[in-house]
Amino acid sequence: MDEKSNRFRMIAKTIAGLEEVLAKELTDLGASGVKLVKRGVEFFGDKRLLYRANYLSRTALRILKPIAIFTAENEQQLYYEIGKINWSEFLDVDGTFSVDGVTTYSNITHSKFLALKTKDAIVDQFRNKFGRRPNVELENADLVVNVRIFRNECTVSIDSSGESLHKRGYRKATGPAPISEVLAAGMVLLTGWDKNSNFIDPMCGSGTIPIEAGLIARNIPAGYFRNDYCFMHWSDFDKELWESVVSDAKDAIVDFKGAIVGSDRSGRILTITKENVESAGLQNVITLRTSFFADLQPPEGEGILVMNPPYNERMKTEDIVDLYKSIGDTLKRRFAGYHAWIISANIEALKFVGLHPTRNIALNNGQLECKYSRFEIYEGSKKQMYAENNVEPEVIEEPIKKTGKRKRIVK
Ligand SMILES: C[S@@+](CC[C@H](N)C(=O)[O-])C[C@H]1O[C@@H](n2cnc3c(N)ncnc32)[C@H](O)[C@@H]1O
Prior knowledge:
The chain is of the alpha/beta class and 411 residues long.
């Protein structure tokens, strides 16, 4: 920690593919020393930023505060180093804690074993000091310890969030294959939507994407519906500072006059969607419609369309091909002026949309590696559009390959 400025290092975890969006969010919130890491962002800030990042970041899954880094080539070294940390600084003997462990490319090979050994070292320190020990509680513990070993280098952090930040608290129920709120928010932010033009999700399912768009449009904090974060149980919790963070954020909520449409072919799912929209207080912002995409009439004007169609590895090939072909046809017929973004794990099916993507981003939806592709829909041919506007075709980013290299081609 930098004693003078009270700034310390933090790590925000996210979904693979959202690192840059998260880095921008954190920079906008006042982070310094921002650095992208695998599925996360390292940054520096003070306690206020720690609270703000938890409450306001839409693409962070959790915010960790590292407290020790050391080499752990074996179990004894790990136990010794964990024992050197003064745990009563972070946890009361009557409190509860849990340990989350992950190990990769290291001599200690099992994550569960890593967590268990860490827990033992913490418990033994309390027993030796007080003759008593805090209890382990897997859910809602007062202190969540995060221990990661990569190539025998161990980072011990305390988790300021607790329950993953994707659990916003507005979703009452879901349809099949809902996406994470963090992924949905990241997808909306990646479109660069101006928050004025139309926003449409024509296969909205339980409504995660339009709801996240609505929260973004109204500047409603991501944590608006959530009451608990782990940092509230820390001994240094500053209630006044937290309340000022919440009150400043609530003062910054704005009205939204544009149109956000969520639509789906299933009326049954839309009853769930309606509940979720109401629970997020966005019933005056989001219009829900029951419609097949092919029949959907967009509101007047241009806008952004974001779609999470079925990927259906299980669906018969002809069905999925027909679905993606009809998506392309409908976009061309009805959505001139739109930027359409489609996320899919079915890369073969995506080709049947029959339009050239102008951007491809690799994103993970749970365990599924997906492509998030942008299609710019124009009246007439693209060639004609380029000629009329006297513009050069854009550089296309190919998804990150397994080698970790980004291939760039110009079409
Ligand atoms: C993967 S789910 C979307 C999940 C959603 N993003 C969420 O978070 O709940 C795909 C949705 O597409 C809808 N769907 C499939 N084909 C459709 C079509 N031709 N027109 C409109 N909706 C369709 C399904 O009913 C389903 O709700």
